[in-house]
Design a protein that fits this description.
Elements lengths: L17 E2 L6 H5 L1 H10 L4 E3 L4 E4 L2 H9 L4 E2 L28 H12 L2 H5 L2 H15 L3 E3 H18 L6 H13 L6 H7 L2 H11 L10 H10 L5 H14 L2 H16 L1 H9 L4 H12 L4 E6 L3 E3 L2 E3 L4 E5 H4 L34 H18 L2 E4 L4 E3 L6 E4 L1 E5 L5
Parallel strand pairs: 1-2, 3-9
Antiparallel strand pairs: 2-3, 4-6, 5-13, 6-9, 7-8, 10-13, 11-12
Bound molecules: 3-methoxybenzoic acid.
């Protein structure tokens, strides 16, 4: 079969409109809301003429595709490339890029090592770190992406995993690589992949047992190997998953939260008045900005969703960002409101593959937003926010601001 962008090219199914948009182009990646609105307006699915695959962004269908791992598999990759037909750029993740029943085994180990109990013990160090960091950044012009959004997770998460000498730049860039890699072979993907020889061997080395401290999450994963739940090789691969999915995502969530609060001062005032809203504000940031904008699934067999026939091998780009702003599902969907009910948002996925690190991700976001709420009277934008295109992540490149400690008169 002739592949198209690494997958089986399909014809438009009956009743599905053709759309020539590039969902991996600059416009869709840096100014996604108009792209989301058009997508949902086209129907439950649209056919991407440039990629000969489907795309969906209404809440119900996006959730249905994500929920049903039997019809829509992850083992053929969650990007444009079909792992059944084309060799992936790295050995596939043994938790993300697999299906049940094998998935259950690896997922269980991560669930245990990232449990609420484990995260409870991290809350104090996270709070101390966030407090000190915010304290240092008060009342001067900062670039909040590097100074805060990147600085916080890279100072707490690699340590929690047990990395002895974390290299923040390599950890962040590996995340950018992993997420750009699920897009097509475009400039974004090529440019970051050129740096793989610098970064990938370093990452793989950090995953070895002898390079991890004996009191971190990494050591707990290796302990599961000692108990015979997984092999030592599998343990190393699960540590790699933590380093793949655990840095860029939380950096993006925290950066996006700062942007939301800087651009919605009324919402920041609510948070400041009641710092216990920190977690709710982070959750609404996830819904409102969807740090992971889109992931694919692959139809494992001929099937059907909402009356649309979907043939085996069809790649479906599931636009979580569009589903999270669907006005048919969310009252006043386009309003950033930290007091709303956010449950059911798809920013952390849905179904058996939903974010296994969500407890720790929330604890990080909560620690930062609480530290701000307790110390900062207002967040002032001091320049333009600039978005950084990535094939899967909706993240800021630059966010100049000032964390003002004095109340306004
Ligand atoms: C992994 C992984 C898990 C979730 C997301 C991700 C695409 C990677 O297991 O390597 O980024």
């Amino acid at each position: 079969m002739d592949l198209f962008h690494g997958h089986k090219p399909i014809a438009p199914p009956d009743g599905v409109p053709e759309w020539d948009v590039d969902p991996y182009g600059d416009a869709a990646l840096t100014d996604p809301v108009p792209f989301f609105d058009t997508l949902r307006g086209l129907g439950p699915f649209a056919y991407l003429t440039r990629y000969k695959m489907l795309i969906c962004g209404r809440y119900n269908e996006t959730r249905e595709v994500f929920q049903d791992h039997e019809r829509f598999v992850s083992s053929r990759g969650v990007g444009v490339s079909d792992f059944a037909l084309e060799e992936p750029w790295r050995p596939p993740s043994i938790v993300l890029e697999v299906d049940p029943p094998y998935h259950n085994k690896t997922r269980r180990v991560l669930m245990r090592t990232l449990s609420p109990k484990v995260v409870a013990d991290l809350r104090d160090p996270f709070a101390r770190n966030a407090d000190a960091l915010v304290e240092r950044l008060l009342d001067r012009e900062i670039e909040a992406v590097s100074d805060l959004a990147e600085a916080f997770p890279t100072s707490v998460f690699p340590k929690a995993v047990g990395i002895r000498e974390p290299d923040s730049r390599k950890l962040i860039d590996y995340g950018a690589m992993v997420f750009n890699a699920i897009g097509p072979d475009n400039d974004l993907r090529r440019r970051i992949m050129a740096r793989a020889p610098d970064i990938v061997p370093w990452i793989n080395e950090q995953c070895l047992r002898e390079n991890l401290t004996d009191d971190g999450i990494g050591a707990a994963i290796y302990a599961a190997a000692d108990q015979g739940d997984i092999s030592p090789e599998e343990a190393g691969m699960l540590v790699r998953s933590l380093l793949s999915a655990g840095v860029d995502t939380t950096v993006t969530g925290i950066g996006n939260a700062l942007w939301c609060l800087a651009t919605h001062p009324d919402q920041y005032d609510l948070l400041r008045a009641d710092p216990s809203l920190a977690l709710a504000a982070f959750e609404e940031t996830l819904r409102f900005t969807s740090p992971v904008q889109a992931f694919c699934r692959t139809a494992g067999a001929d099937t059907e969703v909402s009356g649309i026939s979907i043939e085996e091998g069809t790649k479906i780009l599931c636009v979580l960002g569009a589903a999270n702003l669907d006005p048919e599902h969310w009252p006043d969907a386009g309003r950033f409101d930290i007091t709303r009910k956010t449950s059911g948002h798809l920013a952390l996925g849905a179904g058996p593959h939903n974010c296994v690190g969500q407890n720790i991700a929330r604890a990080e976001g909560q620690a930062v937003l609480r530290a701000l709420a307790e110390r900062v009277s207002r967040i002032e934008l001091t320049g333009d926010a600039v978005w950084r295109p990535n094939n899967a992540i909706h993240a800021l490149d630059r966010l100049p601001l000032r964390l003002v400690s004095e109340p306004a008169n």
